[in-house]
Amino acid sequence: MPTKLTWHGHANFQIEAAGANVLVDPFFTGNPKATVKWKDISRPDLVLVTHLHGDHAGDSVAICNYHGSMLGGVVGLVEKLAESGLDPQLILNGIGFNIGGTVSHQDVKVTMTEAFHTSEAGCPVGYIIIMPNGFTIYHAGDTGIFRNLKTWGELYSIDLALLPAGGTFTMDARQAALAAKFLKAKTAVPMHWGTFPVLAQDASDFERELAATAPDCRPIIMQPGQTVVL
Fold this sequence. Notes:
By secondary structure, this protein is of the alpha/beta class. 20% of the residues lie in helices and 25% in strands. The chain is built from six helices and 13 strands. The chain has helices at residues 54-57, 60-67, 77-83, 149-155, 173-183, 204-213; strands at 3-7, 13-17, 20-24, 46-48, 70-72, 102-105, 108-114, 125-130, 136-139, 160-164, 187-191, 218-219, 227-229. The strands form two sheets. A seven-stranded mixed β-sheet has the order 6-7-8-9-10-11-12, covered by helices on one side. Strands 5-4-3-2-1-13 form a six-stranded mixed β-sheet, covered by helices on one side. The longest helix has 11 residues, at 173-183. It is globular, with a radius of gyration of 16 Å.
């Protein structure tokens, strides 16, 4: 059963498989690369937020309240989102969860991983998402490279890694390529590039670095609004 991946620009991805719809870092309003508004996308069952910065938490509160979607996030972050208007009944696990923990919703299993960045509440995280069809995705969130990525690559068979590669605030192309190697990812999509002038403006460096560092990992270079079937 195929998995559909749509990139809405920046770190904003929608993942659909076996009747489940997951949205990560739903930054639509104010996103210069978003090709649609959040009300135009199909209803997500689950919204995951990696950290509390406006370009990642984005429209998560509005989307969840409008659709009745559950919101997953680290303890502390979800409290702040509730204070900003999120219906507390829509918080996955009631109070959120934490690094190393796994929660499930509609046959989607989500494991929270560490990330090295900053956040206005809670701490920055990434997610390993196992869709109902078994397809396994790692969304790194915003992070620099760290060696413990090898551990996640040993624990999980990662079909697809979504890796920041824009530099300045996160990994650059060279670090992201090494991250893909650490993760033993079968495929990798670079993200967090091209959105703002301070970031890398294309993904050519990532494609070149990946070929040199992790030649067994297939790059998929997406454009905002594009959907690929995996």
